[in-house]
Amino acid sequence: MNMENEVIEFDIGLGGGGDDAVDIEQPLDDEEMADSSPTGGGSGGVGEVYIPEGDPDLEPYEGMEFESEEAAKAFYNSYARRVGFSTRVSSSRRSRKDGAIIQRSFVCAKEGFRNLNEKRTKDREIKRPRIITRVGCKASLSVKIQDSGKWVVSGFVKEHNHELVPPDQVHCLRSHRQISGPAKTLIDTLQAAGMGPRRIMSALIKEYGGISKVGFTEVDCRNYMRNNRQRSLEGDIQLLLDYLRQMRADNPAFFYAVQGDEEQCTGNVFWADPKARAYYTYFGDTVTFDTTYRSNRYRLPFAPFIGVNHHGQPVLFGCAFLINESEASFVWLFKTWLMAMSGCPPVSITTDHDAVIRSAIMQVFPETRHRFCKWHIFKKCQEKLSHVFLKHPNFEADFHKSVNLTDSVEEFESCWLSLVDKYDLREHEWLQTIYSARGQWVPVYLRDTFFAEMSITQRSDSMNSYFDGYVNASTNLNQFFKLYEKALESRNEKEVKADYDTMNTSPVLKTPSPMEKQASELYTRKLFTRFQEELVGTLTFMASKVEDDEEITVYQVEKFGEDHKANYVKFNVLEMRATCSCQMFEFSGLLCRHVLAVFRVTNVLTLPSHYILKRWTRNAKSSVILEERASDVFSSYLESHTVRYNTLRHEAFKFVDEGAESVDTYNVAMDALQEAARRVALATKNEGRIPIINGRIREDSTNDGIQAKYSTGDHQGSTGQQLSEDDMDIKIQELTHELDSANRKCEVYRANLLSVLRDIEDHKQQLSVKVQNIKLSLKDGI
User: Fold this and answer.
1) Given this model, what pLDDT does residue 12 score?
2) Calpha distance 551→647 (Å, rounded)
3) What angle do CA 594, 499, 626 make, to 5 degrees?
4) To the nearest 10°, the Cα dihedral for 316, 317, 318, 319?
């Protein structure tokens, strides 16, 4: 080289270079195999030299010429594939005259060492640290350009300081993983047909005759499919925004929001129609954020917010398109959804098992109970433990038993430990991960929170996506809008049908219980059927009192013939409140058969109002404020009678226990009971006519009759002052009696009025159902 070609050297990692070298490769995925050989480890032995074996004629040598820099790079990479290592570009030298590259070095991917002290890692927390793969290997190839324009090898180091990768694993090395044109075409075709990356890789392995001949891994396939989907969405996203703008123009109450610039949409999109927002006020206590369509299997990254209505059917609370799936984007989405729902967070929310979503929910819904979808975890279990499922046919049943059929935290922990020991899975990484998160998906940890599910072991209808049967893996954005509207129409029709059945048909009662009749008039048909199952189930259960501390009585409830398995119910008779160890009411909002069995033996004849959740009643969507009081009036007599009965019964039992201790206490108790019986008979005969002064009744048995007489302490004569006080007491009692009579009449009038209001509301809902049916029939006719 002459003086005008004097060069400037850019040392970007040669020798001691770290991750700042010119590395054109993408970061490793968590599931991707590292560049190090599984057999060779991350660092070579001290002083050991590994010399590649192969055809000497195909090895680089000094003086070897290439037509271009790219040709040299391709040759060295091809050589590396044959002998078992990965390559990368390391350093270059440029001409001072025109800045053109005149020298290039290609090195083994294990060249240099990672700089662990660099500023970009010190100033922030590394959430997913990459494994260390660089071990200071010196193997390299250097080429420089000649005056003729050709590139010549100016240096070649053959020896490595680490073991090389065998031929059957070389396809996992990063520089040798490339998706060819024919492979891309096949992936595109299969992705359009709705296949996921796992099934596509199986097809490619079969097509090419082995994984090593495919030339890339499943991670590469998944990344390619994700990028494919991102590119297609960039062209289609304006269609979505145009649709949302039109919906807003048609109805100003329609809500939509775009993350970032609406003209150049690169963030998430959210929308909710007026019905979704209204329904959230009725049924927004529990929500499912359904990310089924997030996976590469689907072409649309579509995620609806779903709730459960009073018929147990899924209802929509809004939808999102997940263009960006970063934590910040999910935070934006949840905050936007909360704003659209009037800022009222749900009691509970269910999502897929995802660390990013979990972090976003903790920020936006700190008071909301977050649950991972158990059924998604079960499905993932079949993938992660497929070898165990194949080898051990009983594993699935044992896994199901430990998760779904345990009644306490202690029982679950014991069953889980037995499970992982029995199948030698204690060290299984994925199982350890879900076990550490057990408080967010195992039922025994969640039963104290409302999730609107009728059973802990059965899957709720709401967990089946709102759009099942409409949006599938091959749905594109052009098809989506029609299918979306069709799904809304179908769900609405099913709700109308359920409303009609509830209002116009009467269920068959299976017992003479006033409670069953009460429930049949309050609950929707489906919820009543579920309640009826529990009520009838009490007939096979026995409730025995095991503890009584005056205020709270504890009952042991067990099924006849199954005394080894019992539930415990704590019952406060004065407040008419009961809690069961199974926690069904807390979880589903319906009383369990264990509490109902206790109600049966304690003569609680109707459901106390605090055990009737409005969201499960036929009037869940009613706007009549007094509606709930109508149900209270409907059962007020029975409830007040039940309270009086249970209170007296409770006190009488204590009286009997103490009176039977000895002969003396027995005689005193019998005298007291006889006196009480006589006074109760007197009160019954003269109900409403005998005034009670200062809480006492005075009796005079002379003149062959019973007279109520009021005394202030002197029976021989009364002064004017004493008579005046007696007259005053009598007057007070008369006024009190009149007031009580007036209150009773008012209660009757109010009950009649509320009954009329309830009839009006029922009639309004019936008319609404008929209007909907007419609309549907007209639409079908058209």
Assistant:
1) 32
2) 10
3) 75
4) -60
Q: What are phi and psi of 557, to 5 degrees?
A: -115, 120
Neighbours of 407 (CB within 10 A): 16
Cα–Cα distance for residue pair 621/57, rounded to 1 Å: 83
Provide, rounded to the nearest whole percent, the portion of the chain with pLDDT above 90.
35
Q: How far is CA 224 from the centre of its chain?
A: 30
| Mean pLDDT within 743-750 | 71
Helix (H, G, I), strand (E, B) or coil at 321: strand
Q: What is the helix (H) or strand (E) element at residue 706, kind and residue range?
A: none
- Residue 230: what pLDDT? 66
- Three-state secondary structure of 428-474: CHHHHHHHHCHHHCCHHHCCCCCCCCCCCCCCCHHHCCCCCCCCCCC
Residue of 284 and 773 predicted with greater confidence: 284
**Of 727 and 722, more confident:** 727
- Higher per-residue confidence, 170 vs 668: 668
- Whole-angstrom distance, CA of residue 16 vs CA of residue 31: 28
Rounded average pLDDT over 276-291: 93
pTM: 0.62
| 374 contacts 393 by C-beta, under 8 angstroms | no
Average pLDDT of span 268-282: 93
**Average pLDDT value for residue range 463-485:** 77
DSSP structural state of residue 534: H
Rg (CA), the chain: 39
Q: Which residues lie closer than 8 Å to 553 by C-beta, 6 or more apart?
A: 545, 547, 570, 571, 572, 573, 650
**What is the spatial distance between Cα 683 and Cα 676, in angstroms, rounded to a whole number?**
10
Which positions ≥6 away from 621 have C-beta within 8 Å?
282, 310
**SS3 category, 525:** helix
How far apart are alpha carbons 265 and 242 in whole angstroms? 12
Q: Of 460, 438, 418, 326, whose CA–CA distance to 377 is shortest? A: 438
DSSP state of 217: -
| The pLDDT value given to residue 236 | 66
CA 266 to chain CA centroid, Å, is: 27
CA distance 618 to 362: 34
Tally Cβ neighbours within 10 Å of residue 595: 28
Q: Is the pLDDT of residue 569 over 50?
A: yes
Q: Which position has the token pair 């009997």?
A: 656
Judged against a pLDDT cut of 90, whether residue 527 lies above it is answered with: yes
- Residue 335's pLDDT is 96
CA distance 287 to 315: 10
Q: Is there a contact between 119 and 131 (Cβ–Cβ < 8 Å)?
A: no
Kindly report, residue by residue over 390-438, the tens digit of the pLDDT. 999 999 999 999 999 998 999 999 999 999 999 999 999 999 999 999 9
Closest CA relative to residue 462, chosen from 434, 491, 441:
491
Q: Which two tokens stand for residue 225?
A: 């499919």
3-state secondary structure of 745: helix
Q: Are strands 369-372 and 348-351 parallel, antiparallel or unpaired?
A: parallel
Burial class (CB in 10 A: 0-12, 13-18, 19+), 338: middle
Question: Any idea which residue has 């709730």 for tokens?
Answer: 307
Check residues 87 and 368 and name the one with the higher pLDDT: 368
CA distances from 551 to 216, 548, 638, 650 (A): 71, 8, 22, 10
Q: What is the pLDDT of residue 262?
A: 64
Cross-strand bridge partners of residue 738: none
Token reading at 345 = 């967070």
